[in-house]
Amino acid sequence: MPPSLLLPLLLAPVLSAPPAAPPSAPVKVMFVGVFHMANPGHDIHNTKVDDMLAPKRQAEIAALTSALARFKPTAVAAEWPANLVAERYPKYLAGTLPPSPNETVQLAFRLAAAAKLKSVHGIDVDGDFPFPALQAYAKANGKSAVMDEMHALGEKHMRDLSQLLAEKSVSVALRSLNDPAHINLEHAVFYRGALRVGAGDAQPGVDLLSAWYKRNFLICANLIQVSKPGDRIVVIYGAGHAFLIRQCVQETPGFELVEPNDFLPQ
Asked: I want to staple 244 with a disulfide (CB 3.0 to 4.6 A). Which of 137, 205, 216, 238 is the partner?
């Protein structure tokens, strides 16, 4: 059959098909990267944080929570496992949870309560982070300068954040952490910098990134799986996760990323 006759036959099913259903309302996600308010000291580089339960800080946290509430969240997700959140959020609502400076309590629970949400999503998962192996390889194979650059950036960011907290408000510190340029630089130097450490079959930088990416994919999977069309979700999480979770949200059909700095007070 000549191509001129074949084309209309191929197009006929398409032209006669019923109109596609309208797309579902997008899930809007605001990822708020935070520092660890309780000083747990679990990261490679840690900010020195003053007492978040002090009256001055409580007033600042209340103000920034009110600002985030303008987003009108239908859901809040936090950096705790689901079972821990399910145990503690009801106690928070009942006023029986002991005071805690932890950011899940101070920001996620407070915001959810302000939005009159009956539950909070705990979406955290544990994961490996083989950083000692990366350091050992770098030291033994002439890559210490790479590690020094990574550590120097981490220490600078922590000093800058500590200074912001000492001189300004919690919200100003969070605005700095959530600036896209800051997020991109930290990821490029620290995480992508790890790819410079290794050779041949020995690739500790790749091992580190693979483990880090897996954990963040699991976190993002949890986020996606608890969402429904039209949700407006605020995610309160350690700022080190910002690049990958933001990327996951931006690249997932039906999801839209909302910038927290459009809401956080200056």
From this structure: 216
Tokens of 155: 């220490």
- The pTM assigned to this predicted structure is 0.88
C-alpha–C-alpha distance, residues 148 and 146, integer Å? 5
Alpha helices in 99-203 (DSSP H): 103, 110-114, 131-140, 144-167, 170-177, 180-186
DSSP class of residue 196 equals: G
Residues 75, 171: Cα–Cα separation, whole Å: 21
CA distance 251 to 139: 37
- Pairing state between β 27-34 and 255-258: parallel
Condensed to tens digits (0 to 9), the pLDDT of residues 49-98 reads 899 999 999 999 999 999 999 999 999 999 999 999 999 999 999 999 99
Element at 50 (helix H, strand E)? none
Q: What angle do CA 250, 256, 261 make, to 5 degrees?
A: 95
Nearest to 202, CA basis, from 138, 128, 127? 138
Residue recorded with tokens 């797309």: 23
For the chain, the domains span 27-262
